[in-house]
Design brief:
Blueprint: E1 6-7, E2 13-14, E3 22-28, E4 38-49, E5 52-53, E6 66-67, E7 74-76, H1 78-84, H2 87-92, E8 98-101, E9 107-114, E10 120-129, E11 138-148, E12 158-159, H3 160-167
Length: 168
């Protein structure tokens, strides 16, 4: 997936290259049932919500503030865009990160990146088995990533590597 650059109402151009799809290879360590380490290739995509936001109640946005990628037409968010520059690094290092199941049946992890206001950077994602035709083992869709204060889903965290191993 390739996102087109955004040009603000004031003519500033924002590259969205760090939100382009990519392949990520993870090395799953050996286990009792799989005594050899194994490389797993995951297709990674970043959704529109990683760099846009919905309008607040009673907020009207200028048409030039809207990023039009689908009928939803969300407001481009400079904060999400800037924090999103960390997403490729976060994805590359998520194998041993704690992830939580959300009430929407996807997962969330919290990055070590924090805002000046002390908010956590929450990365919401869905992990699915890939079609054998793709040459991938799994697909990771980063659905949304944005600052959140005081949000922690309940339940026990699970390492991303465990989620990946269970999927395959």
């Amino acid at each position: 997936m390739q996102w087109a650059a955004y040009v603000s109402c004031h003519g500033k151009r924002y590259s969205l290259q760090h939100f382009h799809g990519r392949r990520q290879t993870y090395r799953l360590p050996p286990t009792a049932t799989r005594p050899r380490a194994r490389d797993v290739t995951v297709g990674v995509k970043f959704g529109l919500h990683c760099f846009t936001r919905r309008a607040a109640a009673n907020e009207s946005a200028e048409p030039c503030a809207i990023y039009h990628a689908n009928p939803e037409g969300r407001i481009f968010c400079e904060t999400r865009h800037a924090m999103g520059e960390e997403l490729p690094r976060i994805v590359a290092t998520m194998l041993d990160r704690n992830c939580y199941l959300t009430d929407r049946r996807n997962h969330v992890l919290f990055s070590t990146v924090r805002t000046e206001a002390g908010e956590d950077y929450a990365v919401f994602f869905a992990l699915r088995r890939a079609s054998p035709k793709t040459g991938l083992d799994a697909n990771l869709m980063v659905l949304s990533a944005h600052p959140r204060r005081g949000f922690r889903p309940g339940g026990k965290p699970d390492k991303f590597r465990h989620l990946l191993r269970a999927l395959l």
